[in-house]
Design brief:
The longest helix has 26 residues. The protein has 14 helices and 20 strands. Strands 7, 8, 9, 10, 11, 14, 15, 16 and 18 form a nine-stranded mixed sheet that branches. It has a six-stranded mixed sheet with strand order 1-6-5-2-4-3, with helices on both faces. It starts with a strand and ends with a helix. It is an alpha/beta fold and 504 residues long. The protein folds into two domains: 162 residues, 3-Layer(aba) Sandwich (Leucine Aminopeptidase, subunit E, domain 1), CATH 3.40.220.10; 321 residues, Zn peptidases (Aminopeptidase, 3-Layer(aba) Sandwich).
Amino acid sequence: MQIFTSYFSDIKDINSDLITIFLYGNNRLFNKQILEIKKLLPEEIDRILKLEKFRAESESSILIYTNKSFKSPRIQLFGLGAKEKLNYESFRKASALSCLNANKLKIHNITFLLPDLPDGLNLKYLTQSIFEGAFLSQYKFDKFLTSTQKTNRLKKITLAYNSKKLKDEINSVKVKTQILCDAVLLARDLSNMPANQLNPDLLAKYAKKSAKSFNYKAEVWDENKIKKTGFGGLVAVGSGSNHPPRFIILKYYGNKNKKMNIVLVGKGITFDSGGLSLKSAENMAEMKMDMSGAAVVLATVQCAARMKLPVNLIGLIPACENMPGGSALKPGDIIKHYGGKTSEVANTDAEGRLILADALAYAHKLKPELVIDIATLTGAVISALGHHVAAILGNDRTDIDKIKNAGDVTYERVWELPLYDEYKKQIKSEVADVRNLGTRGAGVITAAMFLKSFISDKNKKEYKWIHIDIAGTAIIDEGAYYIQSGASGFGVRLLIEFLRTNFK
């Protein structure tokens, strides 16, 4: 599917299966807009409005079939509600619902008319939001369905506007949004892929293919190098599987004038059975998506490279399966991680933090300006925040606030939880430096506190670090608007917005 933009002077000349016109819902403004539409369809509009009782309330719509003077056979009036209450997410949802309505009509293309800007919103983000909602709404993971079962999708999305002065700005937004949405769909596809189609080695091959296609570098360590380098957590967690672990390093250098490296670390558990601390059968199939953090990191680096962002970005992905084989990690085991610190395994289903510990310790070698790890790390985050907001924790106040701001714009929102020293007691071990499972309560915080143990070097100097727990937002049971059930790709738009806003 492609995104197009077009200048227009007369709506009657737009050749599309469906034209969507956004309308604001307060009475004075609504009546003014309807007067303009009556000039186009003087006979039909009063009768249709009366029959449908349409007043442009939020997410309401009516379909009008045009006369022979129009090249497009249909116009959809789509209500946004009160203009003064709108934000960018309002337009994402509106364009998504408009496209989902179009899918029911089994048509192939849709044209949106660019609406007047509400106060407080700018053209760039409003345009991007319309494109995002429309494009992402068409996603469905149907790679393994036969062709006769595949869902009808739009083939072309067009945004029409009536001022030639807007051409360059809107075209620039279109190109970048297409790249961004492609990255989100990559993250969704990788996360939705069944474990028999995406083991650690196949994930590494995806990374190498992406790097070759989009002009960045991908280095892959096999199990021998992982073991030789001292990644004890990755070795231990992967030891119960027939598919050996991989460590993937992605490198994109978009600003050769600066040595500042931003490091992204993504949890890459391609399937999580829980290991010997076996999960219940209910919903275990979702654990093919326990590598959503890795998918986000890969997609973000790919997107940054395609957009040519002026940032030096390194992605670290420890990848393995957590399986209950005869050689599997056992409760009570003690692991020696990269850098020498040890951890006691209280529960083999708290495995993500064990592999992230190696990557976070290794990140010191890269002399990072900032390290951000992103992971489906805890079920506790769902209890705390549900499926609408991710948890964010860390030691860098400035960048936490910047990521929060990026979340407000993209609606991939984050909520900060504390990392007070008192929580250290909950992961204290009598036999190792740290324990991989905290005592009862504050599971999101104690998991982050475990990770924090590995961000300091031998001199106890910490780099700037942020942890984002996406267990509640990356895996969705019920889809809506532009996010379908399954993998959401949460984090790609958030991180790209953070990077392109703050590193110029």
